[in-house]
Design goal:
Blueprint (H helix, E strand, L loop, with lengths): L3 E2 L3 E5 L5 H8 L15 H17 L4 E6 L5 E8 L7 E7 L8 H16 L4 E7 L3 H9 L3 E7 L5 E8 H9 L1
Parallel strand pairs: 5-6
Antiparallel strand pairs: 1-2, 2-3, 3-4, 4-5, 6-8, 7-8
The protein binds coenzyme A.
Length: 175
């Protein structure tokens, strides 16, 4: 996995040293309000993070820790992942509360869309947001993803789905 940068952030491939900070992030009810079944125990988070670590060893993408480019302080996490065999690559992101509302998620989503299509030549991306998660939907739209309407999400309920094919992204850049 490559280390990436945006205007304000560095995206660093996940390591086990990041686990304690991420356990706290995943335990925050407000951060997790629209993700899965809500706040996670350390045991649940560890299982998920070990899976993501292995994902990034198997494939050139997985989980990145988001850090302030100037101070190195951790601010969140983002993912490109294949949730199960045969599924399209899924984009996701989450920020600690002090980092909300500064345009950072938009920077991350745009950087990962560009990385996926330009460097990794991934044919298609998808993303899901809870129907009430207007901020996340706004981020995905700003990153150029197409609102594909309501559909069964990864956690069993009905979510808003977003899609983007590599050809669409390439032609939107030429326009
Ligand atoms: C959702 C989240 C990623 C947004 O990150 P962010 O860095 O605050 O988002 P940005 O600052 O890039 O801005 C997103 C856009 O959403 C808009 N927005 C923010 N909060 C909003 C709200 N409650 N309702 C509607 N729009 C909202 C912003 O105005 C902005 O659009 P604009 O630039 O046109 O004004 C962040 O709040 C978060 O991590 N939440 C918890 C985890 C989560 O829900 N992750 C997504 C799971 S799918």
């Amino acid at each position: 996995m490559d280390r990436l940068q945006t205007e304000s952030l560095v995206l660093e491939p996940l390591t086990r040293q990041d686990f304690p900070w991420l356990f706290a992030l995943y335990a925050d009810r407000d951060v997790m309000r629209y993700i899965g079944h809500g706040a996670r125990t350390e045991q649940e988070s560890r299982k998920n993070l070990e899976w993501l670590l292995a994902h990034g060893e198997r494939l050139p993408f997985g989980y990145w820790v988001l850090r302030d480019r100037r101070t190195g302080e951790p601010l969140g996490g983002a993912v490109l992942m294949i949730r199960r065999d045969g599924a399209p690559v899924e984009l996701g992101f989450m920020l600690a509360q002090p980092a909300w509302g500064r345009g950072l998620a938009t920077q991350v989503a745009r950087a990962l869309v560009a990385h996926a299509f330009s460097n990794l030549a991934i044919p298609e991306l998808q993303a899901f947001t809870a129907v009430e998660n207007a901020a996340s939907a706004a981020v995905l739209r700003k990153a150029g993803m197409r609102d594909a309407g309501l559909r069964p999400g990864p956690y069993g309920g009905l979510d808003r789905g977003f899609e983007l094919r590599r050809e669409e992204w390439l032609s939107s850049r030429q326009a």
